[in-house]
Design goal:
The protein is α/β, with parallel strands linked by helices. Strands 1-7-6-5-4-2-3 form a 7-stranded mixed sheet, with helices on both faces. The longest helix is centred in the C-terminal third of the chain and has 20 residues. The structure holds pyridoxal-5'-phosphate (PLP). Pyridoxal-5'-phosphate binds next to helix 4 and helix 5.
């Protein structure tokens, strides 16, 4: 199947797995740690990465491989490596280009777990981060770049502040300095935005969210576009022999996908954070309806955002699909087919009124999750972002009264009715 020329809807359903004659119609769950070979040389060649194939599920597994191919096809990348979680995807994505003594420029509008990963854990590993507002000018971004800066990192649609990234602006600064732009594309999914078209070099995902879409499986993914010049002098580990792999040179042995080859050979192998076959199977099932779900999530969210915006008990609504959103022009450029199901809003009466609203919702549940088929709400300041300082909350765009709403694919009238009755009690 020549996947590149097919449309996204077809790829969502069919890419990644093509059964041969008499084989299972849907990709089987290969629940096996290892794979049998008839002679020692075959296994030695696999270990040396001389021949492609499977030998141990920590490095690669046929079910996970099918999911990786599906995600790569949808994003328009050359390769994808799936991880145990979105956190693992972002950690590995940074570690693959930066080491102790290096520096990364990040957009400050970030998921709370990513802020914690960068400012605590990766800092302990010796990697330093500088945060800039999404509205930073190219000059301000440029001024933050140092000789040891190895990447620019941002979220295409931020969780939870729903700030839309000006991908081209961040890409221009990254490329002027010979470093990759890494974007977390979890919220738009490739159905609503394909960041490679706008200059991103690496895409990460928490597949836990819309790609699975049913709140069944935690997972992550890292996708490589395939045209970044790793030989520009800034990334010696890509062009020098890797002694831990008998002198393998990633740009020479894997010219199509050196970033992904290095990711698997070093970080997936040594940290041991791959995705597991059963989760990959469930995520693939979810992805077969991704195009239908993202369309409905976006329609429902826009309708509910309009309803809330006109409701007398609601103080403010931020959804980039609304004309009133400061990010509406960026959304028209980067998210022309919809802005996903996530928005945030505040109730008149602040944090306490917001809590009363959340307690009285019947269809929309309070869960520490987002981006699945069921409508749910969350109060980031006291839940997902509670480890952040006040300054970090402000930088992440999280006010104390902010309620994050993830709109599902239920009937829109039922959702409006539920919010209406709960707002009356707030
Ligand atoms: C949820 C999320 C993550 C973390 O993913 P997990 O699968 O929970 O580890 C990272 N980035 C974004 C934008 C997210 O929404």
């Amino acid at each position: 199947m020549s996947e590149k020329r097919l449309h996204k809807e077809t790829l969502a359903v069919q890419a990644g797995y093509t059964p041969g004659n008499g084989e299972p119609r849907i990709c089987p769950i290969v629940q096996s740690t290892t794979f049998k070979y008839d002679d020692a040389q075959s296994v030695a060649d696999l270990f040396d990465l001389k021949t492609p194939g499977f030998f141990y599920t920590r490095l690669a597994n046929p079910t996970v491989d099918a999911l990786e191919k599906k995600i790569a096809a949808l994003e328009g990348g050359v390769a994808c490596v799936c991880t145990s979680s979105g956190q693992a995807a972002n950690a590995n994505a940074i570690l693959n280009v930066a080491r102790a003594g290096d520096h990364v420029v990040a957009c400050s509008s970030l998921y709370g777990g990513t802020v914690s990963l960068f400012t605590n854990t990766l800092k302990k590993c010796g990697i330093e981060f500088t945060y800039l507002l999404p509205s930073a000018t190219e000059e301000e971004l440029q001024a933050a770049i140092r000789p040891n800066t190895k990447a620019v990192f941002a979220e295409t649609l931020c969780n939870p502040s729903v700030v839309v990234l000006d991908i081209e602006k961040f890409a221009r600064v990254a490329h002027a300095n010979g470093i990759p732009l890494i974007v977390d594309n979890t919220f738009p999914t490739p159905m609503l935005c394909q960041p490679f078209q706008w200059g991103a070099d690496i895409i990460t995902h928490s597949t836990t969210k819309y790609l699975d879409g049913h709140a069944s499986s935690v997972g992550g993914a890292i996708v490589e576009k395939g045209d970044f010049d790793w030989g520009n002098g800034k990334f010696p580990e890509f062009i020098q022999p890797d002694e831990s792999y008998h002198g393998l040179v990633y740009t020479r042995n894997f010219p199509q996908c050196p970033y992904s080859a290095k990711m698997r050979a070093q970080w997936i192998r040594d940290l041991g954070n791959p995705q597991m076959a059963f989760n990959a199977f469930l995520t693939m099932l979810g992805m077969e309806t991704l195009h239908l779900r993202m369309e409905r999530h976006s329609q429902n969210a826009l309708a509910l955002a309009r309803f809330l915006e006109s409701h007398p008990k609601v103080a403010w609504v931020n959804y980039p699909g609304l004309e009133s959103s400061p990010d509406h022009p960026l959304a028209q450029k980067y998210l022309p087919h919809g802005c996903s199901g996530v928005m945030c809003f505040g109730v008149k009466g602040g944090k306490e009124a917001g809590e009363r609203l959340m307690d009285n919702l019947k269809l929309a549940a309070i869960v520490v999750h987002v981006a699945d088929v069921r409508t749910c709400v969350l109060h980031p300041a006291s839940m997902t972002h509670r480890q952040l300082s006040e300054a970090e909350l402000k930088a992440a765009g999280v006010s104390p009264d902010l309620i994050r709403l993830s709109v599902g694919i239920e009937n829109i009238q039922d959702l409006c009715d539920d919010f209406d009755q709960a707002l009356q009690k707030a």
